Amino acid sequence: MTIDMPDQPQRISKREFISRVASRGGWPARTVSSVYEDILKELLETVAHGQSVALTGFGRFYLQTHRGHKVHFGRSDVDDYSVLKFSASRIVNRQLQPKQDADGGTGIENLPANPESAADPKQAFASSA
């Protein structure tokens, strides 16, 4: 379920996301949920061990380390810490740019339902416009 909040983009829940993927691929939601959990576990474990995860045609996940600093208000300082970062590929960034099609669509909807089903895998996420 999505909640409309002014000044904030809409979000979908994990359940809705899994449901959409299951519908698109024709798989049981339970299977998609299991794969989703395994992918996230593997991604986080890999990045936690200092490696980046590059998904060709999608982007790169990596760990970014920040140095600790003094806090102006409060009693304690912030220690060094790391955060998970994501850098989208050029292909993905181009796909997210709204482009008007002849039918008035943005082109984002023209992504293949299953990128692997595209004739040329390198063109799987290329604009169909």
What proportion of the residues is helical, as a percent range?
25-40%
Rg measurement, Å: 19 Å
Major beta sheet summary: 3 strands, antiparallel
Q: Quickly count the helices.
A: 3
Q: Roughly how many Å apart are the termini?
A: 31 Å
Name the shape in a single word. extended
Oligomer: single chain
Helix/strand/pairing category: alpha+beta
Count all strands and give the number: 3
Strand order of the largest sheet: 1-2-3
Mean pLDDT level? 80
Question: Approximately how much beta-strand content do the residues carry?
Answer: 5-15%
Low-confidence stretches: 115-129
- Following the backbone from N to C, one meets helices and strands in this order, namely HHEEEH
Please describe what this structure looks like.
The protein has 129 residues and is an alpha+beta fold. It has a domain of 41 residues. It is 29% helix and 15% strand. The chain has 3 helices and 3 strands. A 3-stranded antiparallel sheet has the order 1-2-3. Helix 1 crosses helix 2. The chain is extended. The two termini are 31 Å apart. The C terminus is likely disordered. Pfam families: Bac_DNA_binding. This is HU family DNA-binding protein. InterPro entries: Hist_DNA-bd, IHF-like_DNA-bd_dom_sf. One of its GO terms (molecular function) is structural constituent of chromatin.
Quick recap of the structure?
The chain has 129 residues and is an alpha+beta fold.
Layout: helices, strands, pairs:
Layout lengths: L13 H12 L3 H20 L4 E3 L3 E8 L14 E8 L1 H6 L34
Antiparallel strand pairs: 1-2, 2-3
Helix pairs in contact: 1-2
